[in-house]
Amino acid sequence: MNRKHNFKELQIWKKGRALVKEIYQLTSEYPQSEIYGLVSQMRRASVSIPSNIAEGSGRKTSKEFSRFLEIAYSSSLELETQLYVSCDLSFISESKLDEYLFKIDEVQKMISSFDSKILADSI
User: Fold this and answer.
1) Would you tell me how many other CB atoms lie within 10 Å of the CB of residue 95?
2) How far apart (Å, rounded) are the C-alpha atoms in residues 121 and 123?
3) pLDDT of 68 higher than 70
4) At how many degrees (to 10) do helices 38-57 and 11-27 cross?
């Protein structure tokens, strides 16, 4: 299959993978009682970001790819909310929250920019 975008070369995919690693490291410090709750949800949401970017890159049209980018973006919003909840529950500090919100914001901006670019290129 001839793909227009090789996900392994995309900076948003690489940045998404780095975020996954950081979320896994962060949540390893959460209470054991959260392993099937917030920890599981945060890990799944973070993994969803690069996974949907990769899956979308294999689609035939830019419109289809764009849909997967939307899902990746939505997963980043889910993760953002879970970080706020983590702070509310005192699992992380406000400074740690700000640090991760900045990282997520970078990924969100990259996804939005790339989505606009692939849609513009398809016209």
Assistant:
1) 8
2) 6
3) yes
4) 170
Q: How many Cα atoms within 13 Å fall on the side-chain side of residue 12? A: 29
Provide DSSP, 16-40. Answer: HHHHHHHHHHHHTTS-GGGTTTHHH
pLDDT at 122 over 90: no
Choose among 62, 43, 65: nearest CA to 53.
65
Residue 113: how many other CB atoms lie within 10 Å: 11
pTM over 0.90: yes
Q: Give the CATH number of domain 8-121.
A: 1.20.1440.60
Dist CA 122 CA 95 (whole Å) = 41
With 0-12 / 13-18 / 19 or more C-beta atoms within 10 angstroms meaning exposed / middle / buried, residue 69 is: buried
CA distance 120 to 50: 22
Which amino acid, one-letter code, is at 46? Answer: S
What is the overall mean pLDDT for the chain? 94
70 closest CA partner among 4, 119, 3: 119
